[in-house]
Design brief:
It contains 11 helices and 11 strands. By secondary structure, it is of the alpha/beta class. The structure holds manganese (II) ion (MN). The site of manganese (II) ion has 6 residues, from loops. GO terms for molecular function: hydrolase activity; nucleic acid binding.
């Protein structure tokens, strides 16, 4: 598979890398890390990253402006995105050839070539594997690229805490750390928390409820306004109360304009089936969904209670 991806990259002069909307460190790290790897291997090719910029992660890098007509002869690679609806920038339809690289369950195998492997902690870890196998083809790893991929792995493993962290994750991460980027500076930037987020965290810890082993937090639009926090920012707090004894699953509801975002997490029971029943999906232990009323939110809680017994 990696050989086929290398071959496609070799053939195209213009390569545009996409990832999912509302990018997290893995989406940006895998996207920008791959861009750097390819650029370093093929300095004369035109390698671009597209999508909306994410202000809270701007220190990782910014997106390129890409003209529509560039797509006509382009290879597009989409990182960390399970389905086409979540791809940031829909112009992938205009590309000549599309490659999907992802570690989420392969719900929608879009594109001409699909490399999906849920055994990896993160798409960034897959890109490290791509580099390892690409060394004999002349791929090199700069400390800048290593930092981006490290950011993605750290993000998706919760600093190597979640159960998606494998021996392979540590081996691949070691290769990144060897490139000698500044870890202290990176963590300072990643974990900087402004006052409003600290206040909101306090509010979440005071107000989440536990229903028969299920932790539940409901953030309304008024709450977000009161703390001046966006829905996307509030998602950083999804694990704020996960350590509370007795919790088997938990759910974080965030009310947006016309919908309520749902983030589901688990320490054992499989919860992505519940997500799929409510316009979502994801990993067995970490999924996302969307509901359209607080009554439907209560249904999700009832289902979590049932699987958590
Ligand atoms: Mn990911």
């Amino acid at each position: 598979m990696i050989k086929e991806i290398q071959e496609q990259i070799r053939q195209y002069d213009t390569i545009i890398v996409h990832r999912h909307e509302r990018p997290d460190p893995d989406a940006l790290g895998s996207q920008l890390g791959l861009v750097k790897l390819i650029k370093e291997r093929y300095p004369d090719k035109h390698i671009l990253a597209v999508g909306e910029n994410e202000p809270s992660l701007a220190f990782l890098g910014m997106m390129d402006k890409v003209d529509d007509k560039l797509y006509n002869d382009a290879l597009v690679i989409v990182c960390d995105t399970a389905n086409t609806a979540r791809i940031d920038d829909k112009r992938i339809n205009q590309a000549k050839y599309v490659i999907k690289i992802d570690h989420h369950p392969n719900e929608e195998p879009y594109g001409d070539l699909v490399w999906v492997d849920t055994a990896f902690s993160s798409t960034s870890e897959m890109i490290v594997e791509f580099y390892i196998q690409g060394q004999e083809e002349g791929y090199t790893l700069s400390s800048d690229a290593a930092l981006l991929l490290y950011a993605g792995i750290v993000g998706d493993t919760g600093r190597f805490l979640y159960n998606n962290t494998t021996a392979g994750t540590h081996r691949r991460t070691a290769i990144l750390v060897e490139q000698g980027f500044n870890q202290t500076e990176f963590y300072t930037k990643l974990h900087k928390k402004d006052l409003k987020m600290s206040r909101l965290q306090g509010y979440v810890l005071q107000n989440f409820t536990i229903v028969e082993g299920v932790g539940v937090m409901r953030l309304t639009r008024e709450d977000l306004e009161k703390f001046s926090v966006t829905s996307n920012e509030s998602s950083q707090l999804v694990n704020a109360f996960s350590d509370v004894e007795g919790l088997r699953t938990w759910v974080f509801f965030v009310e947006e304009q016309d919908q309520i975002r749902v983030r589901l997490r688990s320490k054992g029971p499989v919860i992505n089936g519940i997500a799929a029943e409510h316009n979502g999906g994801g990993h067995p232990m970490a999924s996302g969904a969307t509901v359209y009323s607080w009554e439907e939110a209560d249904e999700v809680v009832a289902k979590l209670v049932a699987v958590s017994k």
